[in-house]
């Protein structure tokens, strides 16, 4: 895409690098870049510092302005911007082209791309896939929704490299039909999520399916057929369809849980389909030690293990944690309600956990679902994560686990899942030190 001299509006600078990298990449190629964000200068201080030396034409912070969209030729839309946004409507009515940071990357990258999506486990599956490819001797770049824009690395990439991109439903929904799409696709699962953003279950499904429908006949796809919804998507695959590895073919893993064996089965199948050796699959998976914020054993004190599972933002991901850790665990569940059904999660907690403290905006909804259940699991509702942690600590015993596995988004009380995790770990340290 030629951008030199074009008027470009970056809508949503954000705090995680996508907006920053898009703004810099475009400005350095001669685009006349306006950065606009609802957040003010103080909230975006870190992102603005990263752009201090970039030739940005204009910043408009603390609110949007009509002319930045009406006069734009190209608008880079932050993934968090919901469909039907009025500012996007202004730009579209004026004839602007809508795109995203991830689409800029896909169209500019010389490397071959593996796209990974799913409601749960897509970060781990992406990292497992990258680990196998690296073990097989490939030069690999890992990014996307996993937490890092790769636009700034494009000049270092070659046609012999491989990129593994974790792709969220938000990102997939924003990629245009004219974009280049990943040559290989992995779909781990699909359960209701982000319905507050998509509006309904079918729209969420449609976004996830775009990873398959955008591919060409030369593409490769791995579908986790253990998942009831994804198993129905076989007819959408335009190229080569591969099943996950069988359970007995997955080597022993350092990361706990049956769900991680399913993730590994998908990653391994894709890697083999891309020509990796069975030896590379085994070595790559057995050496994989997990990712931060995914059932991460963060602290041990007084016989208890504190697990940071802050990336568990769906009921299904929390149920996977319950299955992995057994009945001697206390769970901190809560945050911002994304509009999903929590009934199955509450029933699983009642039958598989020692106790659960509900906190944040969704606490009363969760407590209402738990009320009246006949169970040995203890339930408690409170305002903050600190209160939830203190309650779990007082009731837990040596040999038990305390797990932050929230099933919800973080932004009722925290900037993001990383801030939530850091707060949990710092509070756990302070709590255990006072009790020492």
Overview of the structural elements:
The chain has a 6-stranded parallel beta sheet, sandwiched between helices. It has 436 residues and is α/β, with parallel strands linked by helices. Strand 14, helix 13 (343-352) and strand 15 (355-359) form a beta-alpha-beta unit. 51% of the residues are buried. The chain has helices at residues 18-28, 45-50, 66-70, 86-93, 101-108, 122-135, 169-174, 195-198, 201-213, 258-273, 278-286, 315-325, 343-352, 363-370, 385-395, 417-435; strands at residues 7-11, 32-37, 58-61, 74-77, 97-99, 112-117, 140-144, 162-166, 184-187, 220-223, 240-242, 296-301, 304-308, 329-334, 355-359, 378-381, 401-404. The mean pLDDT is 96. Helix 12 (315-325) runs parallel beside helix 13.
**Radius of gyration (Å):** 22 Å
Unreliable stretches covering 5 or more consecutive residues: none
How much strand? Answer: 15-25%
Strand order of the largest sheet: 7-8-6-9-10-11
Distance between the termini: 60 Å
- Report the principal-axis shape: globular
Instruction: Report the major sheet.
Output: 6 strands, parallel
* Portion in helices: 25-40%
Give me the secondary-structure category: alpha/beta
